Amino acid sequence: MPPRKKQKTATAASTASNPSPDFPSASLLTLALTHHPYALSLRSKEHTKTPDALTDLDAWLTTTLSAKIASAQPITKPDMTSLMKWKLARGKSRPTLLGLVASNAEALVMRSTSAALQTVRAATDIDGALLALPDACALRGVGAATASALLTLHPPHLLPFMSDEAAAFFVSSLGGIKYTDAFYAKFARAMRGTVVRLNADLAADAQIWDCMKLERALFALNILRKHGEEGILDADPGSSTSPSGSLKRRRDGGDE
């Protein structure tokens, strides 16, 4: 496999963006997050042969894998393979990526993921956390989106997972979705800015947001709307929330 091309990382100044007027309200996001398990079940029926496959993978990701990351235990090739299965079941199916991830040497997986997670662990802001991306993407089959699926699990969840469903809400400000380091940096900063805004407006007993929770809320909202199930959200009457544009995106090469 040829060496991964070095990609430009967008600067903070070039990625500043404000949410569109029809971005989901905090109350709608809170409701959507509570229905994330149901949204997962809807997606699982679409993308897996076993109805509960995605739900089971998500439970493993948020418990077993998250615990390993929080306690700085080594991430193994089986871990990365399962993470890829989760990503493909939750999003766009690209079976070749599973084989590419499985082709990495165990030592390389442990070395690359350890370096990436150490960088996130030491980070105090989004810019510092984004420096973890090159190490995570040193593995075959792992691009910005897959790397973000791993890095988002490290508390306090400074980085978001880049799902199409979440990124679709930022198309009006960031442009078409691209699976590149530069686009991911823009998306991550937009998500982080939204988290800061949501937490600044919190009521005393309200949901405390981070990038992982926000992505899961946006994913759930998108999936529920796709399946015509948004009625269960009891959304704000005045909200015109919908993903900005469609899920059409341009591919600029490289792994997801």
Describe the structure concisely.
The chain is mainly α and 256 residues long.
Structure description:
This protein is an all-alpha fold. The chain has one domain (20-233). Helix content is 56%, strand content 0%. It has 14 helices and no strands. The chain has helices at residues 12-15, 26-34, 36-47, 53-70, 77-90, 95-102, 106-122, 126-130, 133-136, 144-151, 164-167, 171-174, 181-200, 211-226. The chain is globular, with a radius of gyration of 17 Å. It starts with 11 loop residues before the first helix and ends in a 30-residue tail after the last helix. Residues 5-16 and 235-253 have low confidence and may be disordered. Residues 1-21, 232-256 are annotated as: Disordered. Residues 247-256 have a biased composition (Basic residues).
Poorly predicted parts = 5-16, 235-253
- Taken as a percent bin, the fraction of beta residues is under 5%
Largest sheet: none
Quickly count the helices: 14
CA radius of gyration is: 17 Å
> If you average the pLDDT, what whole number results?
86
Q: Approximately how much helix is present in the residues?
A: 55-70%
Order of helices and strands: HHHHHHHHHHHHHH
Secondary structure: number of strands: 0
Give the helix/strand class: mainly alpha
The N- to C-terminal Cα distance equals 15 Å
Categorize the overall geometry: globular
How many domains would you count in the coordinates?
1
Region (Disordered): 1-21, 232-256
Biased composition (Basic residues): 247-256
